[in-house]
Design goal:
The structure is a single chain. By secondary structure, this protein is of the alpha+beta class. The protein has 9 helices and 19 strands. The strands form 3 sheets. Strands 1, 2, 8, 9, 10, 11, 17 and 18 form an 8-stranded mixed sheet that branches. A hairpin with a 2-residue loop joins β17 and β18. The relative contact order is 0.18. The mean pLDDT is about 85. Bound molecules: flavin-adenine dinucleotide (FAD).
Length: about 375
Amino acid sequence: MHDVAIVGAGPVGGTLALAIAQSGLSIVALDAREAGSTLRGDRSLAISHVGRLIFERLGIFARLAPAAVTPITAIDISQARAFGTTTLTADEHGLPALGYVISYRALQAAIDDALAATGIELRHGCEVTMVTGTPASAHAIVAGGDAVEARLAVVADGTGAAVAGVARKRRDYGQVALVAKLTTGSPHGGVAYERFTTSGPVALLPEGERYGLVWTMTPQAAEEAVAWSDERFLAELSRHFGARRDDFTSVRERKTFPLSLELAQPAVAARAVLVGNAAQSLHPIAGQGFNLGLRDAFELAQEINATPRDSLGGHAMLARYAARRRVDRYAGVAFTHGLSHIFALDGAIFAWPRGLALAALDALPFAKRAFTRAMLFGLS
Ligand SMILES: Cc1cc2nc3c(=O)[nH]c(=O)nc-3n(C[C@H](O)[C@H](O)[C@H](O)COP(=O)(O)OP(=O)(O)OC[C@H]3O[C@@H](n4cnc5c(N)ncnc54)[C@H](O)[C@@H]3O)c2cc1C
């Protein structure tokens, strides 16, 4: 029997594995994807300053080429065809950067590389169909019928669908995120944009020489936008974006992700714990999902490292972990869900209160500081 079985060695499960690699425990990580691949291609991830500190400590940051990490020096927030703008800058907060943008694929490669150096057993092409627990141990059932037994199963598969005894609350946003990579006529200078348009929020994340685009819209609009010619796509984007940024020159890798809010309640079950998107899946509007998942991984690692082997996965340990994560999880869900409502609502009737909120944010230093802090570090 293993001490810890990690189901899903993606960005969150892989980070957890690295954070407990020196514990002396017997650890196995199971992942459905083949070595060197990612399950759903690439996307731009904005990570917070805390995320960077976690990656530095675990040797992940050093494995990312300098060009793969783009500092965000400012975030420009505005809305189309209505008043109200604000700009959050790293300088005014005395930080080297407000956050960093990393490609999901580059991050996964760095984590895989770091894992390979630890000697942790990582089984690729290993799809887990069910995780069950008894008072004595957890079983991860692999497609084909084999079972992996462990004192503790950590589910980090991005969905958490296969865990016995965990109910999931799900709310479909009726929206998808259309992601793509864009080039612009002039350099981005580290400036990210969050723009609220009549068809949904649009985020531009500076990544390398390009921008990563996250454009929220209805599934039907996204189906059409994916099929547009590059010229039409860039023209429509410029129209929505207005004068704030209108020098888009090329687009590639258009792809859509359905958006829903999902919350595992509770995020622990017999001998099992859910982390990252398996525990909560958020609207990407404020780039909080992965950052919250990283904090799950980091705090679970602290709990695992502090727990005697015989007590791993026991009720007391799981209850302690659930209690220490409760506030951060619920605050993260409430913050992004609230923002998605305030900022995703369509129509002129919502534009003026939103404009007031942005103007107030711009005029009130303490409000701006609090908002920036929430964006960077979470609400706990
Ligand atoms: C368009 C978009 C933009 C986003 N932007 C941001 C952002 O800017 N900042 C941010 O913080 N967050 C962002 N997010 C959220 C972020 O992508 C997720 O929170 C993060 O990827 C979650 O990591 P994870 O490791 O929990 O899950 P995943 O990334 O889903 O990884 C799951 C891992 O488990 C493996 N797996 C899946 N099923 C199984 C199975 N049955 N058995 C075994 N292994 C399995 C997969 O191969 C994968 O390696 C965004 C999300 C979207 C959709």
